[in-house]
Amino acid sequence: MITCHLRYIVDPYQLPAFEAYGKLWIRLVEKFGGKHHGYFMPSEGVSNVALAMFSFPSLAAYEDYRKRSFDDPECQAAFAMNEKDRFILSYERSFFRPVFEDDQGTRRAP
Could you read off the pLDDT tens digit of each residue along the chain, which spans 110 residues? Predict the structure, then answer.
C-alpha cells in the first residue's frame, strides 16, 4: 500500500471553493480504486495550508489512476475549477508506506 500526502497552499479567501474541489476528488479517487482519507482544512493557526491523504494498493495503481484521470471528463472538470478560480497557489506531493500493528504487538509494514 502507498499513501499520497498532499500539502496545499491555498488562497485563504477562497476556502469554500477549495473545499468543494476537495469533496469532488474524494469520490474521484475512490472511482479509480483508491481509498481517500479526507481533506483537512485550515482551522486554528495557519489560514492557507490544507492537507489531503489517500491510498492505493501500490505505486503502480496510483500511477494508473493519475494516467486515467487526465482522460476522465469528471476529473477534467475538477481540474478546470482550479484553472478558472486559482484557489490552489501551490502543492507538494509525498508518498508514504503505512505501518500497522500485527497480532504479536510488533510494528510491520503491509
Answer: 999 999 999 999 999 999 999 999 999 999 999 999 999 999 998 999 999 999 999 999 999 999 999 999 999 999 999 999 999 999 999 999 988 787 444 445 55
Rounded to two decimals, the pTM is 0.83
Domains of the chain by range and CATH? 2-108 (3.30.70.100)
**CA dist list (Å): 88 to 5, 23, 75, 83:** 15, 15, 16, 9
Residues 6+ away with beta carbon under 8 Å from 29 = 35, 36, 54, 65
